[in-house]
């Protein structure tokens, strides 16, 4: 196996210090050590996060710290990190998630054995605010054989599990016009170019989700639906004859209409009912 260099890209905004430390340490403790860790602070007012990163940087020279003069958003922050990346591969990381310590080693081995793969993802475990188990996400790699169908039928990829060839990401970059769903847009553009995707069928990341705040959940649903619909509209010229794309496009349109027409109080009751039903049927 060749010990190729990885550029790990992680942006910070306002995450809890506890989560940030766990995220950073999960990268620095990787069994595969040939990487640079590019951390971008997108909130110049967050002095605690800055001090936390700088303290780690004093101990580990693999950390490269960038600080934006003002809040420019996730997509542009990631692009700034990608712009200075010197590794042959780019890996994503979010500042409240936890990478399994063998993540990079296993991803590099897979990519070395499968040089035709351009973008590699993995299975994911969802955890709550206290690191408790929520759910497992285990899509089959077989769906990558026909993404112009299955990508628009199923949820397949978790963004921070990504490891990809640097040149692929540098050539396409994230679209800064999308405050949310910038990853979805990038995957669609990669699929349009017939790039090769693969899913490593093992859990390599713990992805943190907020489970308690219904208000926050509704806010994310509304914002996410708006930008997801915008992403699909933006990519429509390449997919207007694709049945699966159009079907998903219509479903997002209906969801967007529903979320914006129904008052938040009613949406909260619907979500509470859904949670109760899920609890009943999962027992």
UniProtKB/TrEMBL annotation:
Gene3D superfamilies: Spore Coat Polysaccharide Biosynthesis Protein SpsA, Chain A
GO MF terms held by the record: hexosyltransferase activity
SUPFAM superfamilies in alphabetical order: Nucleotide-diphospho-sugar transferases
InterPro entries xref list: Glyco_trans_2-like (IPR001173), Nucleotide-diphossugar_trans (IPR029044)
Record-annotated Glycosyltransferase 2-like domain positions: 7-162
Pfam families: Glycos_transf_2
PANTHER family reported in the protein's UniProt record: GLYCOSYLTRANSFERASE (PTHR22916), UDP-GLCNAC:BETAGAL BETA-1,3-N-ACETYLGLUCOSAMINYLTRANSFERASE-LIKE PROTEIN 1 (PTHR22916:SF3)
Record-given protein name: Glycosyltransferase 2-like domain-containing protein
Originating species: Methanococcus maripaludis
Taxonomy of the source species: Archaea, Methanobacteriati, Methanobacteriota, Methanomada group, Methanococci
């Amino acid at each position: 196996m060749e010990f190729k260099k990885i550029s790990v890209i992680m942006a910070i905004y306002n995450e809890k210090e506890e989560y940030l430390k766990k995220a950073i340490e999960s990268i620095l403790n990787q069994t595969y050590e040939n990487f640079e860790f590019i951390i971008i602070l997108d909130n110049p007012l967050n002095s605690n996060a800055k001090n936390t990163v700088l303290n780690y940087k004093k101990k580990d020279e693999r950390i490269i710290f960038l600080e934006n003069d003002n809040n420019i958003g996730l997509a542009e922050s990631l692009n700034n990190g990608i712009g200075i990346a010197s590794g042959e591969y780019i890996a994503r990381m979010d500042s409240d998630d936890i990478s399994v310590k063998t993540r990079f080693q296993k991803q590099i081995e897979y990519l070395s054995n499968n040089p035709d793969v351009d973008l590699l993802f993995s299975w994911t475990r969802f955890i709550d605010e206290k690191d408790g188990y929520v759910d497992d996400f285990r899509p089959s790699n077989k769906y990558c054989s026909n993404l112009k169908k299955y990508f628009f039928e199923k949820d397949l990829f978790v963004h921070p599990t990504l490891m990809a060839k640097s040149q692929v990401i540098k050539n396409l970059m994230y679209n800064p016009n999308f405050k949310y769903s910038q990853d979805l847009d990038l995957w669609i553009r990669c699929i349009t170019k017939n790039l090769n995707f693969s899913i490593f069928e093992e859990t390599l990341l713990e992805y943190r989700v907020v489970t308690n705040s219904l208000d926050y959940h509704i806010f994310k649903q509304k914002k996410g639906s708006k930008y997801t619909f915008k992403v699909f509209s933006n990519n429509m010229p390449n997919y207007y004859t694709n049945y699966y794309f159009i079907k998903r496009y219509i479903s997002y349109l209906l969801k967007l209409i529903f979320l914006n027409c129904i008052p938040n109080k009613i949406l909260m009751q619907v979500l509470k009912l859904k949670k109760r039903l899920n609890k009943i049927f999962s027992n």
